[in-house]
Here is the input.
Amino acid sequence: MDLKALRGLIVSDFTLDSLAVRLGSEAEAPVIPTQVAPFDQVQQILINPADPSWASDPNVLIVWTRPENVSPAFAAASNGHKVAVEDAFAEVDEFAQLLESASHRVETLLVPTWTLPWYERGLGALSWKSSSGVRRLLAQMNLRLAERLESVPNAFLLDADSWLLKHGKTAGNPKLWLMAKMAFSPEVLREAASDIKATLNSLAGKSKKLLILDLDETMWGGIVGETGWQGLALGGHDPLGESFVEFQRAVQALTRSGVVLGICSKNDESVAMEAIDQHPDMVLRRDDFAGWRINWRDKATNIAELVEELNLGLDSVVFIDDNPAERARVQEALPKVFVPDWPEDKLLYAQALKQLRCFDRHAVTAEDVQRTEMYRAERQRQSMKESMTSIEDWLNSLNLVIQVEALGPGNLKRATQLLNKTNQMNLRTRRLTEDEFMSWAGADGQSSYCFRVEDRFGDYGLTGLASVRADGFVEDFLLSCRVMGRGVERAMLSILAQTARRRGGSSLVLEYLETERNRPMLGFLQNDSGLEPGDGHRFSRTLLDPWPAPSHVTFQLPEGWVEAEAGVRSG
Amino acid sequence: MASRDEIQNVIFQTFASVNEDLPADKRLTPEPGTVIFGQGGKLDSLGLVTFVISLESALSERLGKSISLTDEEAMANGAAAFHSVESLVNLIASRWEAS
Here is the structure.
């Protein structure tokens, strides 16, 4: 359904001009330019496709009738006559047939349910008796109509009773009917217009899909960072605590129609999550949320990131926060996000949520029902990856391949670039020209090696460099930060150890020269290198003991390489 | 009895309410000289009925006085009684005083 090409037609047996104005208003999307068919010509217009009312080629048809006009049996019942329900059903069926026929001429057919004004009390206690209960008969007629239209895919009944309930005594005024043939007050027609627009938004796939919630004073009462979860107002036997439970239940109900939940809260994540996991009266738990941003950063930035992470559009998002300043900030920074006004009275939160039309659905698909589950499964996969206790398992899963090359004309340029620009993972931060570097590496007993790294995520190219003297002193040891922390560092050490051993060295020695930026190198030497710390920043290890390469690494070694170490395997 | 200003304020508040359902060119401006109905007026007969019934409710709610403006006498003289804000204030004040 194209929301920019809507053309409405109202067919009714009472005055609905102001509904047409409201539907055409830009104050609420979508705009539906609407014609009102001649008053009280319902059957004639529905049955006759050549009626002039169809000349505007409408694609949205609204048929709103009074029950006494559709069903003479109901009219008789309203006047105190005994009627057979079957007679009323036959009249409803006939009307449904007309509607079904008209539904083929439009994209969408909307039919408000039949209602009775508040003052139509019938005979009091007999209102719901089968013998003469007018309200019972009307309910049966509405149900019959719903059943008859169930199989018409583009026809929807709209619940007019909710519009009347909202406005109570002012929903209808006999004077309006007697003087202007208006069955309902302007307030009711405004509700109708909003529901019609919400239905069309839903049909166009514009229903909101992601509800992002604040925590403190929104999901629960109180500030969790100050009181701990034990001090929150949530559940228990007081109106405030119960109201938050009720609100959470209303939120949870939305997830069953495909709405995905997120959290955006200024809090310490661990403290907030402890409350979500531990508080006995929380209705919503960690698994109910597809994602969250719980930190002290700007909420608009957090929301934008979260929406991107969940691969949704900003125009599918609703943000609820008790704090007007936060709401204003998000609304200003992310105008596509719907930020509803929120009541100051916390006891009204559930009501405020249930009143929102932006989550309306014209259908709930299997995909909708599974959407939260899908996000939850994805988050659990991510969480499993993050919580993998064995670093070895993770390293083994990388399929790491390291190609070792001696420094030569083919790699000199790239190797020199790496030598001169690497800062963090750099042992001595030696800077040389290409000529100087080649000259150093060509000297007797000295070697420089380049390391090309590849794993199952991709080929990172020449990212490591190491130079060693015959006595085992390491002159250069540097690695691009792109491949740090995957065991490449230890693999490079094992290659240097082989080289030094072949040349008669007794130990491998790395002397760390501190710069402003190479602390990561020191961290590696101290914690992960397997080297023994010595004086100052010297680290060494004897070459007499075996020095196996990391088992998760497969080497591709230069031609003629003498595998002096059993632990180094060629790929 | 309410003052003329109070009555006028209720009229303006009712303007705001009925304007929500009127096309832009038919909306009523909250000014003493606004012509409501009849020659040069903004409302048609249907709009007038809606407005007057809303005004009755508003007078009852805000000033605590039930005044009928839709009786035969008032509606028969509609063009005059409902012509402008001023004439409407006069009508309401006279009805109030008479009741």
Summary: The domain at 8-203 of chain A is CATH 3.40.50.1110 (Rossmann fold). The mean pLDDT of chain A is 90. Chain A has three domains: 8-203, 210-383, 395-556.
